[in-house]
Design a protein that fits this description.
Layout lengths: L1 H16 L5 H12 L6 E3 L5 H6 L11 H4 L2 H4 L4 H10 L4 E5 L3 H7 L3 E7 L4 E6 L1
Parallel strand pairs: 1-2
Antiparallel strand pairs: 2-4, 3-4
Helix pairs in contact: 6-7
């Protein structure tokens, strides 16, 4: 019985760690197909490894999303709302949002359209109109 429990745990771990989709790589691949030289990408509140996969720089020095989307910004005296406005005024060609991020969606306005959703639609890729 113990062997069955251990085997079940190993199978579940394998499925969760090895077979799960690599959404950051899928997002980067979808952008790479449409990305032209000189275009910008903003990874709002998703995994910043997308910048690395695309060989692009972040449009902000506050690359980790916790610094702009949680209360952490207060500890570092970061004007998070002002920084988000600054980023979105540059009109990045692609914006990646994890779950529904109301702050970024509001700043995007009608300037963007949904290109694709990943991972049961938790990750959304938007492109500038």
């Amino acid at each position: 019985m113990l062997a069955t429990v251990i085997l079940a745990i190993q199978i579940i771990s394998f499925n969760n760690e090895v077979l799960k989709p690599d959404y950051p790589r899928e997002v980067a691949a979808a952008i790479q197909q449409e990305l032209d030289a000189g275009e910008d990408v903003y990874v709002a509140n998703y995994q910043q490894i997308v910048y690395y996969l695309l060989d692009l720089d972040s449009p902000t020095k506050y690359i980790h999303s916790n610094l702009l989307f949680t209360e952490t910004h207060k500890a570092f005296n970061i004007e998070a709302d002002q920084e988000l406005k600054r980023i979105m005024k540059t009109l990045p060609d692609f914006v990646i949002i994890y779950r529904e991020n109301e702050k970024v969606l509001k700043l995007m306005g009608n300037n963007y359209h949904l290109v694709k959703a990943f991972g049961k639609e938790k990750v959304k890729l938007y492109q500038l109109n």
